[in-house]
Structure formats: structure tokens, C-alpha cells
Amino acid sequence: MVRGRISRLSVRDVRFPTSLGGHGSDAMHTDPDYSAAYVVIETDAEDGLKGCGITFTLGKGTEVVVCAVNALAHHVLNKDLKDIVGDFRGFYRQLANDGQLRWIGPEKGVVHLATAAILNAVWDLWAKQEGKPVWKLLVDMDPRTLVSCIDFRYITDVLTEEDALEILQKGQVGKKEREEQMLAQGYPAYTTSCAWLGYSDDMLKQLCTQALKDGWTRFKVKVGADLQDDERRCRLIRDVIGPEKTLMMDANQRWDVPEAVEWMSKLAKFKPLWIEEPTSPDDILGHATISKALVPLGIGVATGEQCHNRVIFKQLLQAKALQFLQIDSCRLGSVNENLSVLLMAKKFEIPVCPHAGGVGLCELVQHLILFDYISVSASLKNRMLATQQK
Ligand SMILES: C[C@H](O)[C@@H](O)[C@@H](O)[C@H](O)C(=O)O
Ligand SMILES: [Mg+2]
């Protein structure tokens, strides 16, 4: 049973000096310090349970997100958890539409990252009070309650409440078997951490060799800054992993649209499954042009880690601008908004391959993708989770 009144919210600025080793580096973020705004909420219930939620950031950006969390905190403080989750759609809207803060959003940027951190903490607390992990809380929830957590504003032209209910009701069939399968086998994953752009060729070779030995079969490499470097690095990786293993490429928004097409025709010989973030995350039609141009090369477009909200995802789907949809557990407005994107992806039959790797993301997305497989998509085709190798 949900209980307690939120009596305290604290937020910490947590940073790791990952830029020193080039970890996490790509064609646009050359010196990332992996960081998080870390929110903890407490209640006056005598169970000692706390809700922990984060949003992923880079270095100095964390200061700004921490400010935004503090600016939103009054929406949560002194509220009964029962009232929050009893009208979760309303509560999501309240945070996302704060009369003064929405002007510097709305539903995007720093305010939305802060919203995600707070809501992630609320979901964590709810699940802890129910004695379950978040994925299980979602899987066990009846479709009507799930739908009541989602804000359908701006997406009813592609997904109505009735559509969502229908998808979730169909997802009940075979749910138990899929849950057992996940518990026994886990979810397919790729390593996102063997080929950061700042790594030397030696390091790349060593990490890919180790990953292969450890059983990894899917690898992602950063590209986009220099074509000759990309060709050399991709050749080196293919030499290590062989022609059959799956390789994905990530340009982190480096190119213009024609440049993306041209560059990828040069890298097509390395047989990438997808090119991730080829251009600006806001350029929906640009992604569509790139997707269309790359079909004959057998390369899909993946994007989402910097997609502001469900509206951008809706348009990417409508415009056939992506072949792999990468939700982000902390950029979208927490579980609530991610649910709407999972359901839209199901409606368009586009596979979801969550973005992860940054602080806490690998943990958070597991909950979303397990729910997706067990209750929504019921498919593992072309789907995998991003993970950091040890
Ligand atoms: C700055 C970060 O490490 C990004 O490079 C990272 O999120 C990346 O785009 C990824 O897909 O893992
Ligand atoms: Mg990426």
C-alpha cells in the first residue's frame, strides 16, 4: 500500500572525472565528465524507505539541473504519495507545466531533465513501498492504471487512450511466459563502451578483444569527426570482431544532412546496422531524408538520446525518420512519458533500443525495456539494450 507524506527532497551534484581518460567521448562531446543530479525523497511514514531518482548530465551542466530540481521541489513537498500516484497524469502535468518554469521548457531542456529526476524518485519510492522493482510494478499494473499515468496531450493524433488500452490488453497474452523468459535469460545487449572517440587504436583493440572474449556480440563505435580516422578505427574493429558480429555507429549530431549521407556511404563497407544521431536531434525531416537515402545501403537511422519529449518522437515516427528508437530514461519525463513513447513505437512497429551508458542509465533502462518486452512489444527482433562492459 502506498503511504506517507513527502517530508524532504534533497538533490546532489555528483560528478566523475571521466574526461581524463576519454571515457564517454564522441564527435561532439570531447571532454565529458559523466555526472548526475541525484534526488532523494523521504516521507513521514515509519518504514524508512527513500525514493532515489537521477537524471544524467555532463559536468558543469549538473549545477543548472540541480537549480531546476530545487525550483520544482515545492510541487512534491508535503504531498501524500497516495495522491501523487493516484492522479499521476495530473501530477506529471503539474510539474511539466509549472506556470513560471514552463517558459524555459516546455517539456524540454533543463526543466524537463529536472522533472525526470524528481519523477524517477517518485517511481522508485512507489516500487519500494510495493516491495517490487519498477519493471515488476509496471508489469503487474492493470492497463487502466498504466494509462492513467500517461499524458496524452499532443499525441492523440497517433495514440489515443483507447489505442493504448488496446495495446496493453493485447500485451496481457503470454505475459507470464515472457516474464519467466526474461528472468531466466535476460535481455539482449550491446557494449557501448569499447570504442569512445578519445581512445587510442591500441585501447580500442584491447577493449574489443576483451569484449569478444567475454561473449559480447554487438558493438558500437563513435564516428563523425574525421573520415580517415573512422575508416581506420572501423577496419580495426571489424578485424577483431569479424564480419558477422553486429556493429553500430554513432555520430552524436556531428553532420549536416547531405554530409551524413555521403559519410555513411563511405562507411557502409563496414556493414553497420545503424547510424545513430547523424544530425541535429531536432531535425525530424533531415532524419527522414537520411533514413531514405541509407535504405539501399542496408543502414538504419537510430536516434532519441537527445529527443526532448513524446512530441518529437511522434513526429520522427510519423515521418519514418528512424528505424531504431532510443528512449532515454532521464531525458523524457521519467517513466510516465517513456510509457507513451513505448506505446507509440508499438503502434508504428518500430523497435525500441534504449540509450544508456551514462551515470545510472544502464540500471534505469532495464526497467523500461523489460516492461516493454513483457507487456507491450512481445518481440526481441532488432532490439537490444545499451550497456557498459566491465
Ligand atoms: C557524451 C556521451 O558519452 C555520449 O557520447 C553517449 O551518450 C553516446 O551518445 C551513446 O550513445 O552512448
Ligand atoms: Mg549515442
From TrEMBL:
<dbReference type="GO" id="GO:0016052">
    <property type="term" value="P:carbohydrate catabolic process"/>
</dbReference>
<dbReference type="InterPro" id="IPR046945">
    <property type="entry name" value="RHMD-like"/>
</dbReference>
<dbReference type="InterPro" id="IPR036849">
    <property type="entry name" value="Enolase-like_C_sf"/>
</dbReference>
<dbReference type="InterPro" id="IPR029017">
    <property type="entry name" value="Enolase-like_N"/>
</dbReference>
<dbReference type="InterPro" id="IPR018110">
    <property type="entry name" value="Mandel_Rmase/mucon_lact_enz_CS"/>
</dbReference>
<dbReference type="GO" id="GO:0050023">
    <property type="term" value="F:L-fuconate dehydratase activity"/>
</dbReference>
<dbReference type="GO" id="GO:0009063">
    <property type="term" value="P:amino acid catabolic process"/>
</dbReference>
<keyword id="KW-0479">Metal-binding</keyword>
<dbReference type="InterPro" id="IPR029065">
    <property type="entry name" value="Enolase_C-like"/>
</dbReference>
<dbReference type="InterPro" id="IPR034610">
    <property type="entry name" value="L-fuconate_dehydratase"/>
</dbReference>
<dbReference type="Pfam" id="PF13378">
    <property type="entry name" value="MR_MLE_C"/>
</dbReference>
<protein>
    <recommendedName>
        <fullName>Mitochondrial enolase superfamily member 1</fullName>
        <ecNumber>4.2.1.68</ecNumber>
    </recommendedName>
</protein>
<dbReference type="InterPro" id="IPR013342">
    <property type="entry name" value="Mandelate_racemase_C"/>
</dbReference>
<dbReference type="GO" id="GO:0000287">
    <property type="term" value="F:magnesium ion binding"/>
</dbReference>
<feature type="domain" description="Mandelate racemase/muconate lactonizing enzyme C-terminal">
    <location>
        <begin position="201"/>
        <end position="296"/>
    </location>
</feature>
<comment type="similarity">
    <text>Belongs to the mandelate racemase/muconate lactonizing enzyme family. ENOSF1 subfamily.</text>
</comment>
<dbReference type="InterPro" id="IPR013341">
    <property type="entry name" value="Mandelate_racemase_N_dom"/>
</dbReference>
<keyword id="KW-0456">Lyase</keyword>
<keyword id="KW-0460">Magnesium</keyword>
<dbReference type="Pfam" id="PF02746">
    <property type="entry name" value="MR_MLE_N"/>
</dbReference>
